Each structure stands twice: as structure tokens, then as C-alpha cells.
Amino acid sequence: MEVKVVRNLLEANERIAQENKEMFANEGIYVVNLMSAPGAGKTSLIEKTVEALKDRWQIGIIEGDIATAIDAERIMSHGIPVVQINTGSACHLDGNMIRDALGEIPLSSLDLLIVENVGNLVCPAEFNVGEDDKAMILSTPEGSDKPVKYPLMFQESSVLVINKIDLLPYIDCDINAMKNNAKKVNPKLEILEISCKTEEGLDKWFAWLNKKIEQKTAQKR
Known about the structure:
Structural class: alpha/beta
Shape: globular
Strand content: 15-25%
Number of domains: 1
CATH class: Alpha Beta
Strand order of the largest sheet: 3-2-4-1-5-6-7
Order of helices and strands: HEHEHEHEEHHEHEH
Number of helices: 8
CATH topology: Rossmann fold
Largest sheet: 7 strands, parallel
Radius of gyration: 17 Å
CATH superfamily: P-loop containing nucleotide triphosphate hydrolases
């Protein structure tokens, strides 16, 4: 019975997520679902991204957390539309939560929508929200074994952003092993190495996003 309930829940979410995806496609909005463990740097990366791209693209953010609006307030200070979703005890965002939040964002004027998922290495990968791509952040202090310990997150993602490379001289992290393990579970995974603190490598992330947005917004013209 429990397996059937879980399957029905996932199937219902897929239907709503597909409706969201069609809505985003009609508006020509590129949507990225940003996932990671707590503290890996999702909000910091979003702030850097907004500052780098907001003069070229119209950006909106959906911010997911179990509680508080701390991250949403950080992002809101950059002058872009932000919607906060507090999930309570839920460890992920789902298609229905995103659909309910869309009325608070000016969809028709957006080029890029970033969904910052709840910090978790398991559940967010199981629930589509209507995104074009899932992007994952893995910080160097988390260790090189995470791709093989939590494979679904890496299998579902289009790009892996390895953050906090500025800490490599000070911690026990084999970044080559981290990348090899990620490729082992997803050979097609694109991997970018960055530091939000020093801004090293961020240009590659911006280039990756710009290309994706250009392809999607071409549908508006």
C-alpha cells in the first residue's frame, strides 16, 4: 500500500510539473532548479548570478526553505522579484508548491527563473517542478564520496557546480576523485569548479546560464 501511495504522489506531481513546464515554455522562460545540501552555497551563487546577469536578463527567484525568509531577504536586496516558500516539515519543493507561487511573480516579463530548493541531497531530486534543468552545488568540504553515496541527485542534474574551491589548500578533499565519482554516476554531467568567495570560475557558470537562456528566450521572438 505504501509503495502505491508513493507512486501515486510522484505521478500526480509529474502531471503538475508538466503543466508548469508548458507554461514556462509558452512564456519563453528558462527555469533552473538549484539543489544542494544545506550550506553548500546556493544563495551565494544566486546573489552572484543576479548581480552578473540582471542588466541583460529579467530574473525571478522562488526561494524554498523549511522555515524563515532569511535567504529571500538577502536576494530581495538585489532588486528582483522573489517569492518565499516555507515547506514546514517537507524536505523538498514540488510542482504544486511552485504553481501556487507563480501568481506572485511577473512571469510574462521574465527570462530566467531560479528555483532554490530546500537544502537536501535526497528528496529534491525525486520531484520535478517544471524546470528545464536541474543544477547541483557540491561544496568541497562535503567530501569526494557524495556522488556515490547520493547518486540520484547527480544522475538527475545537468550540471554540477563544485563550490568553495578556495578551501582546497586547507581541507582534506580530493577534487579529482569528486569529479570522477560524479562522472561515474552520470557520464553526461557537466562539471564547473567555482568559488563564490573569490569569484574564481564564476564566468563559466554565467556562460553556461547565458547559453541556456538565449536558447529558451529565442521562443519569445
